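Hi everyone, sorry if this is the wrong subforum. Our group has a chain we'd like a structural model of before ordering constructs, and none of us has done structure prediction before. Sequence below.
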Amino acid sequence: MKRVVVGLSGGVDSSVAAYLLKKEGFEVIGLFMKNWHDTSVTISKECPWVEDSNDAMSVAETLEIPFQTIDLSKDYKERIVDYMFKEYKRGRTPNPDILCNREIKFDIFLKAALKLNADFVATGHYCRKDIIKTNGSSTYQLKAGIDKNKDQSYFLCQLNQEQLSKALFPIGTLEKSEVRKIAQEAGLVTAEKKDSQGLCFIGKVKLPDFLQQQLKPKKGAVVEINNDHPLFIKKALNKDDSLPETLNTLSRKYEYSPEMGTEVGIHNGAHYFTIGQRKGINIGGKLEPLFVIDTDTVSNTIYVGQGTNHPGLFRPGLKVLNTDVHWVRNDLKLESGCSLKVLSRIRYRQKLEKAVIHQREDGLFVVFENEQRGIAAGQFIAWYVKDELLGSGVIS
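Answer:
Right subforum, don't worry. Here is the predicted structure as tokens:
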């Protein structure tokens, strides 16, 4: 009998994952990850991990499977929280959920499971794993979940072949409604529990409050850049042209300075804002709402523009440094000088967008068929062919 350790989070998805695996005949062990102790930044006064741990324990009792709690808070702080603070301080936009899967669930947690002699670890992610057998060797595919509204393959875009070989995703072929129905029929306490909100494993947290634990408020100027600024006059470029100078132009972000616009207000810290953000600017009296089009944490300036269609919010391409390029499918890795038509996304639940990726000596360039809104350094871009996620990278 194969042994699988399930990361029981106290939610309905991981609960049903454990139920299905036991039903399939696996020897199932439930393991709850305690990754955060500080409740001073949560929205409610309740301690979220205690509630989640109790629900996970209740599920384990119902399923009659062993249950343990593992404290990974030290690793979580070092690998996720400290990284987040560092990135925001630089004016970048990290994705803690992707890092959490790469660094915690499928590294630290996986190693703990292997010490329990597990053959696999399982999670409640809405994604699928397939295997290609070639001459006795296996290649693992990471595919989108059947439920397109819940597909979470993007959150796993940094996994490698070794991690995938040990991973199981039991609910990836189900719709969310089916998962809840199964939980109800199995009598699981999590059947009607709402999906968790906030940062991975931290709970119902207000991100600005969380950031202020390390990044203190610092007043600076809000500078508005007009929609018709000459900076936004685009050169006529052929997107099919893959010459280095064309790729660099298409992927280049706009560079602003205070003298390009008008100071319209004060903010409490450029490191609290990201491109595309509207909330928190708190400046009225404009024909259209203001959106952040760029931040400068060195001068502590944020640049804003009016309206959801301000040209500063859109870019035709982006670049990923070679050191930040990751291939889930190493066998499909592009060599320098090669290109590939893909589908791509830069955030969870974003509709997949047609693009071409170009691997060059100085980095990987992504050119979109349609300009993309709110591209921010530090975000992850993931690329797919059909429903398979092939690779990802950190936007430079």
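For your construct planning: Helices lie at 12-24, 48-63, 73-89, 96-115, 161-165, 176-185, 207-211, 244-251. The chain is about 25% helix and 30% strand.
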